[in-house]
Design goal:
heterodimer, A: alpha+beta, Rossmann fold, D-amino Acid Aminotransferase, Chain A, domain 1, 3 domains, six-stranded antiparallel β-sheet, five-stranded mixed β-sheet, 12 helices, 15 strands, B: alpha+beta, three-stranded antiparallel β-sheet, 3 helices, about 10% strand
Chain lengths: ~350, ~80
Amino acid sequence: MNKKLCIAVSGLNATDNPGPGIPVARSLRESEAFSDAKIIGLAYENLEPGIYMPGIVNKTYQVPYPSVGSENLLQRIEYIHEQENIQVIIPNFDAELHAFITNEKRLNDKGIATFLPTLQQYEERHKANLPAFGKKHNVLVPKSITIASANDIHKIRKEFVYPVLIKGKFYDAYVAFNEEQALMHFNKISSKWGVPVIVQEFIRGTEVNVIALGDGKGNTYAAVPMRKLYITDKGKAWSGISIDDDKLLKLTYQIIDSTKWRGGMELELIKTNDNKYYLLEINPRIPAWVYFAVGVGQNIPETLVKLALNMPAEPFTTYNVGTMFIRYSWDLIVPMEQFQILSTTGELEKN
Amino acid sequence: MKLKPKLAISDSGFIFDPSTGESYSLNEEGLIIVQFLKEGKNEEEIKEHFLNEYDIDETTFSRSYLDFISMLKHFNLIEHE
């Protein structure tokens, strides 16, 4: 089926801050519908491991970072499309999502489908907008404020009881137990990610995560809750276990129904000892642990591609509980020639 | 007193709580108590078993039993009554 389908994925980095591209490609390779699809890798760096891994992508093209301008990225995508006739793109890199969301029509007009949240969905779930999001969609969220200057650190004392979380608008979160630590974390985060910096109430409990897929009409097509068992110093899950939590699944269905979420997502929540769930974050894309969902019975990338192409798709209703995933690192031996071809031509054919 | 209904308890004393993903290891005596609780036995019945089968007096058993039950409660393995 669909032997000539061409699907492009980005986020081929499998570092200690892994991108979802490799597990997305692996999920498609193992799917019933798209195992014979041609998978094109879109790489921002020439050392992203997915470029060189056997059996992942058929061909990789280097693409410019969206930070140099989304027009450059779009033109490069259009060039690749002329070569490969891409039917679907699954962007997996946070910084590129805005460019793909805002250029959905332009891509569609060229015959390239995406299945991403709308700009409104993307914007309203931003960390800085979380309190309004919680109110609008009837979800508990930790109290939070944004601060744009070190002079505002004193505001924390008036609004919160320490400890608090100091979070970057895209990445990074540190616990501050007093004003000095809050200032230190503010300076570190604002110099790296800019302002505003988010100050968030510290909720005690267990962190739980859900990977989910919404169809854009309020229906949940997939949802797998997971508890991280081992977390790296960058806060990434290195090991996790699928859990049976009806309340968490109902909350996921409610969020997708209320937001009419379209595409993949990851919910990050804290479950308190009195069984309340506080939403910490919504990542508006498939997370890097997506292959775990496939492993417990829900091939989310396969269903996402079906929805993107308006193919018939069935929502998943079950998954295996009590299954674990454990990541590992692996040294890949790469002939210099491959690196050289990619570096000089911006393209690398793998088979 | 009732154990959480979905707990998976293996013969080797490994308990898995599917609602939290937590797992626990029990020693032989802990496993016996948990299995008795699963069967719906009360404290008196469990005590009778231990006093008959083990070299233990009633006071020591009751103290250890209470310790163990409070640990199960602490880990939310007992259903709220």
